[in-house]
Design goal:
Helix content: 40-55%
Strand order of the largest sheet: 2-1-3
CATH class: Alpha Beta
Number of helices: 8
Shape: globular
Oligomer: single chain
Radius of gyration: 17 Å
Distance between the termini: 25 Å
Largest sheet: 3 strands, antiparallel
CATH topology: minor pseudopilin epsh fold
Bound molecules: manganese (III) ion
Number of strands: 3
Order of helices and strands: HHHHHHEEEHH
Structural class: mainly alpha
Length: 195
């Protein structure tokens, strides 16, 4: 990924995750919401040529050390995070399971069982008040952790590497599920291809 950033093409099409995520939600989510993060990210980076060639993950890790006004820093955090978070979200979902057996083993080691793990990720998704994400991440020492972040805050801000995240902004589910976030999250596990 490099500046100017752009939205990806979905290898499985807008309808590829039906019935768990409907095609209209996928299309609007990618071409309107994600596109807006990309546009605003490119707008803020246009002012900082020296940052354009740096990996976006590094800009998130080093956000506090960047020399820029607070308004630009906030725009970079929100829209850089928005781009990174959504790019991963499209990538970890798919119409067919492509189970990562090494990851499954690591999860069972770290959390005790897949059931305990899924409950924790789900609880984090349901307890996130307002908009945000529920994550599985690997920290700098290689330990798997589950937590949620508000808004578009990227796990890279914490120096963690995200493995997958559930988008719990209403725009991710409202057309099909309206206020029923628990039903969206329950169905989302079917759209996740990794486990
Ligand atoms: Mn979203």
């Amino acid at each position: 990924m490099n500046y100017p950033y752009k939205i990806p093409e979905l290898p499985y099409g807008y309808g590829g995750l039906e019935p768990y995520i409907d095609a209209a939600t996928m299309e609007i989510h990618l071409t309107k919401h994600h596109q807006t993060y990309v546009n605003k990210l490119n707008d803020v980076l246009a002012k900082y040529p020296s940052l354009q060639e740096q990996p976006l993950e590094d800009l998130m890790r080093n956000l506090n050390t960047l020399e820029m006004p607070d308004a630009d820093k906030t725009a970079l955090k929100n829209n850089g995070g928005g781009h990174l978070n959504h790019s991963l979200y499209w990538q970890v979902m798919g119409p067919e399971k492509e189970v990562d057996t090494a990851l499954v083993k690591d999860i069972e080691m770290a959390f005790g069982s897949m059931e305990v793990f899924k409950k924790q990720i789900t609880d984090n998704a349901l307890n996130r008040f307002g908009s945000g994400w529920s994550w599985l991440v690997k920290d700098a020492s290689g330990v798997l952790k589950a937590y949620s972040t508000p808004n578009q805050d990227s796990p890279y801000l914490n120096n963690d590497v995200p493995i997958f995240g559930i988008d719990v902004w209403e725009h991710a589910y409202y057309l099909k599920y309206q206020n029923r976030r628990p039903e969206y999250v329950e169905n989302w596990w079917h759209a996740l291809k990794l486990i």
